[in-house]
Every structure is written in C-alpha cells, then in structure tokens.
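One thing: can you check what follows?
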Amino acid sequence: MGETIEQRERTTVGDVVILTLDRNLTSMATRSFDDAPAEVAADDFVARLSHRIFAADADVTRVYAAANVIQVTRTGGWDADAEEAIGTVIADLYRFYD
C-alpha cells in the first residue's frame, strides 16, 4: 500500500546529491537535519525520511528538504550504489507494504 515517489532528476555536485521529486514534501517550508532526528512524529514525513536516509548510509552528514527537492550531503562523495540506495529510501517513503 502506498505510492512510490518518483525522481524527476538527480544531480551530483561534489559531496551533495540533489534529487528532484514528483511531489512536494515540505510545502513552502524548508527543513534540514545534520543528524538523524531522535524522535519522529507519525505525521512528520520529512523527519521520517531524514531518519531513514541517515540509517541507510553512515557517511551521510546532512539532509535538506525544500518543496520537491532533497539534498543529501555525504562524506567522500557519491558512487552509483550509494545514490541508488538513497533513491530507493526516498522512493519507498510512502510505501507501507508491497
């Protein structure tokens, strides 16, 4: 149940991967996390996503969300496998079971 979040575009600049999504996650607000949030409210999907991203990759140092764009900073840069793993975490945010 749930719908997969689609990536419209993915760009890497140094240690940052920028993912443009097919839906807005933050409305007009922005959110940033320099580490995984300790507590995540059931309806705080951006915090939930940030928590999952930090859990999926120990080299992630920052997650920034603005509308339909997610920027993830990773120590040591990005390789194809790391980008794909983060992409999957984002895609599955609203999927509760297959």
